[in-house]
Structures are given as C-alpha cells and as structure tokens.
Amino acid sequence: MSITVNDVEHVASLARLRLTEEEKQLYTEQLNTIINYANKLSSLDTEDVVPTSHILPLVNVMREDERKPSLPIEKVLANAPDDEDGQFRVPAVLE
C-alpha cells in the first residue's frame, strides 16, 4: 500500500487544512515511510508471542479502603462561606 499526493490532499480537505505543494510532498513521503516501517513489522514471526495490552504487568497501587470516623460537622462547616441546617449552602444553578 502506498500513499499518494491525492490521499494527502483528501485527508487535508477532510481536516480543513490548507497545505502547500511542498507540505503535500513532505507528508506523502513521511506517511509512506511510516507505512513501509509497519510493513517490516508485519513480516516478523510472532507466532509464539502472547498478545498483551501493555508491555508491563499492571498492578493496582491504591491502598485498601479503611473505615475512619468523619470530622465533626462544626469543623467541616467552619470555613464554609454559607451553611444552612448543617449543609453547605450554594447559589441555585437551575431556575
């Protein structure tokens, strides 16, 4: 598979990009280089390679949840700009 200048122009049009003739040539060459490299990778023997989604094993680094007592409501609301009935009071966002 090979990328042509027409392909680059089509993608540029879809992306609403204006490219100069030099840019079109440059991007055509760069995209063809990328595709040729990908084709080299497809020639490798991967028969015995296990498919993975990550190169390293994923480990959950979060701690276990621990139950702890909450702060007293007076301390929680101490810095609130406005409170009512033990809750934060905020301006209405809906009419």
From TrEMBL:
It catalyses: L-aspartyl-tRNA(Asn) + L-glutamine + ATP + H2O = L-asparaginyl-tRNA(Asn) + L-glutamate + ADP + phosphate + 2 H(+); L-glutamyl-tRNA(Gln) + L-glutamine + ATP + H2O = L-glutaminyl-tRNA(Gln) + L-glutamate + ADP + phosphate + H(+). Pfam families: GatC. Gene3D superfamilies: Glu-tRNAGln amidotransferase C subunit, N-terminal domain. Transmembrane segments: none annotated. Keywords: ATP-binding, Ligase, Nucleotide-binding, Protein biosynthesis. Its EC number is 6.3.5.-. InterPro entries: Asp/Glu-ADT_sf_sub_c, GatC. It is an enzyme of class 6 (ligase). HAMAP family: GatC. Heterotrimer of A, B and C subunits. NCBIfam families: gatC. Belongs to the GatC family. Allows the formation of correctly charged Asn-tRNA(Asn) or Gln-tRNA(Gln) through the transamidation of misacylated Asp-tRNA(Asn) or Glu-tRNA(Gln) in organisms which lack either or both of asparaginyl-tRNA or glutaminyl-tRNA synthetases. The reaction takes place in the presence of glutamine and ATP through an activated phospho-Asp-tRNA(Asn) or phospho-Glu-tRNA(Gln). This is Aspartyl/glutamyl-tRNA(Asn/Gln) amidotransferase subunit C. It comes from Paenibacillus yanchengensis.
